[in-house]
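User: I'm preparing a small set of examples for a lab meeting where we compare how different chains pack in three dimensions. I only have the primary sequence for this one, and I'd like the structure in C-alpha cell form so I can line it up with the others. Please keep the answer compact; I'll paste it straight into my notes.
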Amino acid sequence: MNTLLGIANLSVSFPLSSGLLDMFSADREWHLRVLEDISLDLGQGETLGLVGESGSGKTTLARAVLGLVPRSAGTITFDGEAIAGRSDRAFRTMRRKAAMMFQDPVASLSPRRKVGALLVEPHIIHGEPLIDRAEAAARLLALVGLPAAFADRYPHELSGGQARRVGVARALALNPKMVLADEPTAGLDVSVQGEILNLMARLKGEFGLSYIVVTHNLALIRHVSDRLAIMYLGRLVEVGATADIFRMPRHPYTRALLEAEPIPDPRRRRASLAIEGEIPSILNRPVGCEFHTRCAVARDRCRGQAPEFTRYAPGCAVRCHYPLE
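Assistant: Understood. Below is the C-alpha cell output for the 325-residue chain.
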C-alpha cells in the first residue's frame, strides 16, 4: 500500500505565561507539551482510527496534520511532498487535497450563510473556478443524499444528521484524497450514526478516500477502520491492525480501554473498573512510563525509565517495557 501521509517525530507545545511562574523563574520559558514525538503513516485508501480518552491529544494531532495547530517539531509528508514550513502558506497546497470534518457539525458552519454558499466556499478560498455555483452545490448535496432545496437553508434549520451530511459534502468539495473526521457520529442517534458511517464507507469506495477517524467509540471504530493508533497523554502507545488489536492488545492501556467498553447485557456486571485512577496532568507528567500510575502490571522499571516506541511488525508498534502476550 502506497503511503499518502507520513508523520515523523511530530510534537506540539504551547508557551505558558503565568505571574507566579515568571516571578520564580524569570530566566526559564515554560511550555505545555500537548503532543510528544508522534510518528505515524496513512496509506492510500486506508482508514486509520485515532483512539484514546478525552484529553489524549487525538483532535490536536488531527488539527496539527492540517496546520490548524502549529507543530513545534517534526516533519509531515503528504502525497509525496514534504510540508516545508509551519505557516498557513506551507499547508495551502495540502489543504486542496485534504479536508476536515469537525466534531460539532452545526458550529463548524457559519450561521450567517446558507448551505449552498457554505458548500462552494472551498472553491472560492482556493481560487477554483466555478461556472454554476448552484449546480455545484446541488451536486455535492446529492452526493450525501440531500435534496437540492437544502442549499437555501441556514445551518440552524438543519438537524444534527443533516448538518453532518452537509459537513461531509463540504469536505468533498475539492475532491480530496484524505478526510480527517473528528468524532463523526458524536451527538447523533444510533440510527443516524449508522447512516453517516454507511455514507462515509460509500464515498470511500467511490472516490478512493483515505480517512483518519478521531473517536473514543471503540464499537464504532472496530467496524470502519483498517488500523488503530492508541493515544495516551499526547503519545502513541500502540499502533496495529484493528482486528489484531481487538484480538490481542499488547499495551495494558489498550487492553483496559477494550475492557471498559459497555456490555449490552444488563445481567452481566463488572466486578471492578477496567481503568482505575485519574489521568495525570500534562503539566506534571509522571516519570518513566506515563501510564504506570494507572497500570495494573507496572514494575519498578516502568516507574523510572520511559519505554521506547518499538516496532514489532510492519505497521505495528507498542510503547511498553513488558508488552502483553
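A couple of notes for your slides: The radius of gyration is 21 Å. The mean pLDDT is 88.

User: Perfect, thanks.
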